[in-house]
Amino acid sequence: MRTPFVALFVFAVSVLSACVETETIQGKASVIDGDTIDIHNTRIRLHGIDAPESSQRCLNESDQNYRCGRDAAFALDDLIGNKVVSCVERDVDRYGRTIAVCYVDDTDLNEYLVRAGLAVAYRQYSNDYVSAEREAHSARRGLWRGQFDMPWDWRRN
Fold first, then answer.
1. Mean pLDDT of 92-117
2. Backbone angles phi, psi at 72, to 5 degrees
3. Contact of 129 with 111, CB cutoff 8 Å
């Protein structure tokens, strides 16, 4: 009589453990672009955000071209500096990159980039940073000061 209960309990514990077990990757990071870093030869794509591509150009508030993708990468590099980055894995994408939320100290890098207007919320995959994007848009920070193509549209063209 107790055997089905024990089996159900073991099953429930294993399912819950699988749900809460996440890998954390820590170390010095190299910035690949505005939404991708590398730690110990692990390519990490920042979860829930999309930054302009490195060669993507945008228009500022004076209608002048600038390299918005490069600016996002530089801002991320400046924020990280020589500090240890901790990334909590959320998934793996079709290219084999780890999808993660990454932190320097207590700063969520993903949120920081969106809130600063250097990246947008990637709604196709997550709604986690939509409110940060709305705040950046309302305050006309970063990309929102001028005109730009959404990174996914720019890549498609």
1. 96
2. -65, -45
3. yes
Cβ pair 88, 22 in contact under 8 A = yes
For residues 28 and 40, give the distance between their C-alpha atoms in angstroms, rounded to a whole number. Answer: 8
Q: Which residue has the tokens 């919320």?
A: 121
Residues 31-90 have pLDDT tens digits of 999 999 999 999 999 999 999 999 999 999 999 999 999 999 999 999 999 999 999 999
pLDDT at 126: 96
Instruction: Provide the annotated active-site residues.
Output: 45, 53, 97
- Which tokens sit at 118? 């250097």
Q: Domain 22-149 carries which CATH code?
A: 2.40.50.90
Q: How far apart are CA 75 and CA 42, in angstroms?
A: 21
State the CB neighbour count (10 A cutoff) for residue 146.
Answer: 17
Residue 13 CA to residue 32 CA, distance in Å, equals 39
